[in-house]
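for the recovery benchmark. tokens below, seq after
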């Protein structure tokens, strides 16, 4: 089978995790090609299936990424995960859906299309003082900022949403969350699933007194063993509307809050899957890929024809 691994021109080449996957696929007898989602000259008509791996910078140009997904979907190009799932996962309002479904989720205040003064009043009424601001579409901690809510002004909200914007009536779209001390004290857990099957877990810890766990902020990560109850709690987040049945891969990020695993994010578009920390997990990835390509290439599921029953606004 010929497999296209979707990358970005920003990276330009496979990262070391993706290279491990590429080598394993070739060892299994597959032909592997690296393609770039953001190259307008790229053609997606030569592979049997395309797997999204490192579509870097999509969150900085969400309209462009959405247009690419629309093209893949309209042309029935087999993409894993599917375009409909990507569209849903792009917008962090999925956290509200998880919460409404009874899944423990980080508390979030969603401010959507409000004038700055009205948005500020909502923030001031929030029950948290130490808060984190996030964009609705984001990745890799891009544009995440921590504030004391009493220090936030209408101008700072405008600058957060649209840097250098001089329009005092700029609509505010931002997610407000409480700063969770657990991230600094205990770290963030990442549980990796292939389909509905749990594969491995990673503990990510903050570094240099930062509140973010990414390596460029001094964060570190390590493979850990994790008990079955936490796995089951994390798996519930992927069972919403039977989402896990249409997944090749997913990563559930979260933290422990009074003994309960609490979801902070679902990473379904381009998650780092920590193959380097757990090389044996590549076999789990390939097994799930084989299951999906052998049973669904002719059914239209992975070409984006099966919706997951959720709103997909970006």
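predicted aa per position
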């Amino acid at each position: 089978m010929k497999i296209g691994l979707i990358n970005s021109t920003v990276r330009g080449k496979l990262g070391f995790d993706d290279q491990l996957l590429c080598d394993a696929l070739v060892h299994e007898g597959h032909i592997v090609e690296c393609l770039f989602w953001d190259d307008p000259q790229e053609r997606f008509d030569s592979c049997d299936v395309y797997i999204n791996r490192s579509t870097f910078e999509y969150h900085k140009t969400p309209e462009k990424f959405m247009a690419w997904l629309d093209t893949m979907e309209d042309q029935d190009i087999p993409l894993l995960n599917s375009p409909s799932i990507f569209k849903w996962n792009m917008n962090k309002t999925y956290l509200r859906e998880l919460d409404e479904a009874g899944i423990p989720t980080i508390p979030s205040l969603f401010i959507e299309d409000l004038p700055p003064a009205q948005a500020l009043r909502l923030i001031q009424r929030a029950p948290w003082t130490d808060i984190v601001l996030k964009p609705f579409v984001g990745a890799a901690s891009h544009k995440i900022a921590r504030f004391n809510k009493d220090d936030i002004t209408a101008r700072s909200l405008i600058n957060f949403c649209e840097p250098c914007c001089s329009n005092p009536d700029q609509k505010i779209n931002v997610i407000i969350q409480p700063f969770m001390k657990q991230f600094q004290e205990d770290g963030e857990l990442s549980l990796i699933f292939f389909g509905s099957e749990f594969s491995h877990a990673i503990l990510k810890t903050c570094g240099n007194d930062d509140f973010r766990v990414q390596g460029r902020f001094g964060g570190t990560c390590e493979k850990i063993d994790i008990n079955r109850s936490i796995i089951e709690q994390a798996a519930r987040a992927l069972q919403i509307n039977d989402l896990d049945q249409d997944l090749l891969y997913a990563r559930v990020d979260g933290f422990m809050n009074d003994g309960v695993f609490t979801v902070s994010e679902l990473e379904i578009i381009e998650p780092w899957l920590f193959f380097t920390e757990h090389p044996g997990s590549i076999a789990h990835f390939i097994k799930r890929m084989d299951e999906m390509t052998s049973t669904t290439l002719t059914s239209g599921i992975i070409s984006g024809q099966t919706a997951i029953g959720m709103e997909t606004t970006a």
